[in-house]
């Protein structure tokens, strides 16, 4: 039966929410994740801090946001995405304002850990992913692919941050970032939160496919595990380990790529632009694998991407050729994008959306461990060896292990309701 005009209108309204979510996620990631790496050389140059000490701030931020992941999920379930987004936006903006006043290493840690990264996570990651997971089912993977283009498009902001630092100084750039977060964040939080509260198009996307073209296959009955049931499954722990190892690789490279390229002779603003280009290259991959995830088993797609990630990072670690390094960086960027678009949909497919925020929060404990080992470990290894070669080789090994584990990460068995 053909959808009614009201169903089609509701359906399109829901897709616009996904694009708004992608924009919000992109600005947040560009300023509070990739963009922070652009400040790295300025901190080293002005204060003389070691790279291990500076990257420790990034590592501590991941620890803090990961440990609070379950609490963020609980708050989202209890208060709703809109209120949580407002709170996160305020915290993130205050963090950037605080960073503009930094004069000591402990103060840098506080502003990044308690302010910027925590606020970005609370304001733009868990609550928005809950909205997308809830409003979509049959096209959930494509919806997350679109949502995840935000971090890819955020690459366009990284060179802007780099040029602001060069032209105005890093303190003024930090203040400008706070202003952008507030001006952009509040209207989007209102729109996204209101859509969730109204349940706009909840029936539409679940029941229909986008007009024209091939239709997504009809989804199976929705899995609906409780948090307790989920934590009892082998699938949760294996998937969390895969995500943690993958995060160790991508976090370590993202945090250190600008300074790594500076070591190779690139100017700071150009190196920041290349980091942005790396994120932007992943945009087509995020969309393509998000679309394919609705038709092809997501586990198989992730196995292929993790294998390619292993090869690309290994090449980056062993080559002295700039051409080979940049080619490997391009493959790495495509793999990074594809994996990012599949991680939430496969989690929702395996465990359901009833307790998605809480499950997402607990999963972040593993992601946090990977983030710490990646960002902090690469800095320490560079300080010891004066090279990033050892770190990149270890990252390649971690990506290979995650590939093997993904073979074993099959959907959980249905729980016995009599228990």
Explain the overall architecture.
The protein is mostly helical. The protein has one domain: Up-down Bundle (Growth Hormone, Chain: A), CATH 1.20.1250.20. The protein has helices spanning 5-37, 40-47, 51-67, 69-79, 81-99, 105-124, 126-135, 140-147, 149-153, 157-168, 170-198, 203-207, 227-231, 234-263, 268-292, 298-318, 322-351, 356-385, 389-408. It is globular, with a radius of gyration of 21 Å.
Strand-helix topology:
Blueprint: H1 5-37, H2 40-47, H3 51-67, H4 69-79, H5 81-99, H6 105-124, H7 126-135, H8 140-147, H9 149-153, H10 157-168, H11 170-198, H12 203-207, H13 227-231, H14 234-263, H15 268-292, H16 298-318, H17 322-351, H18 356-385, H19 389-408
Helix pairs in contact: 1-6, 1-8, 1-10, 1-11, 1-14, 1-15, 3-6, 3-18, 4-5, 4-18, 5-6, 5-7, 5-11, 6-7, 7-8, 7-11, 7-18, 8-15, 8-17, 10-11, 10-15, 14-15, 14-17, 14-18, 14-19, 15-17, 16-17, 16-19, 18-19
Outline of the structure:
The protein has 419 residues and is mainly alpha-helical. Helices cover 81% and strands 0% of the residues. It has one domain: Growth Hormone, Chain: A (Up-down Bundle).
Q: Note the gap between the termini.
A: 40 Å
What's the CATH C level?
Answer: Mainly Alpha
Which percent bin holds the helix content?
over 70%
Category from helices, strands and their pairing: mainly alpha
Q: Specify the biggest β-sheet.
A: none
Quantity of strands, as a count:
0
Radius of gyration: 21 Å
The quaternary state of the protein chains shown equals single chain
The geometry reads as globular
